[in-house]
Amino acid sequence: MLNIKVVCVGKIREKALKELIAEYEKRISKYAKIEIIELDDEKIPQNASTTTEEQIKIIESNRILEKLEKYSNNNTNVILLDLKGKEYSSVEFSQKIDSIQTYSSSNIIFVIGGSLGMSQELLDYSKDKICFSKMTFPHQLMRLFLLEQIFRAFKILNNESYHK
């Protein structure tokens, strides 16, 4: 069975969003083992300087890198969500997951950085980057979008109707 971890910065506080995320975790668990690892985010001061923002990005990225070192090995495919990553259709994304689990690994770690993005060191950690849209979304919503697309990918791979 495929093992999927989602390493993300920030905690979900909105009840409705928590419930939706939990629902998709439950749906995905039919197809794969799924675990969400939440990391603390740094408070961004109002009118923060570029230097301060870069420091925050590095602190948050270092937290992610610590988790990647703990949870990944040579048999883990790490995929960063990044605006400069490759865009996929839902079918292409499902094919990517299928290819990983068939030819590469039984472990995938998706990484959602903080609201300021990721440090260059973290961006260099993995050559595999995906972009959901050129639009900007709150990183809490990206967690829901990612889980929904993972679930949709399994439905596609199993030739199951999504809306049943």
Task: Describe this structure in a few short sentences.
The chain contains five helices and five strands, in the order βαβαβαβαβα. With about 160 residues, the protein is of the alpha/beta class.
How does this model look, in words?
With 164 residues, the chain is an alpha/beta fold. It has a single domain (2-157), classed as SPOUT methyltransferase, trefoil knot domain (Alpha/beta knot, 3-Layer(aba) Sandwich), CATH 3.40.1280.10. The protein is 46% helix and 23% strand. The protein has five helices and five strands, in the order βαβαβαβαβα. The protein has helices spanning 15-28, 50-71, 90-104, 120-125, 139-157; strands at 2-9, 32-39, 76-87, 107-112, 129-131. The chain has a five-stranded parallel sheet, with helices on both faces. Helix 1 links the parallel strand 1 and strand 2. It is globular, with a radius of gyration of 16 Å.
Write the layout of secondary structure elements.
Blueprint: E1 2-9, H1 15-28, E2 32-39, H2 50-71, E3 76-87, H3 90-104, E4 107-112, H4 120-125, E5 129-131, H5 139-157
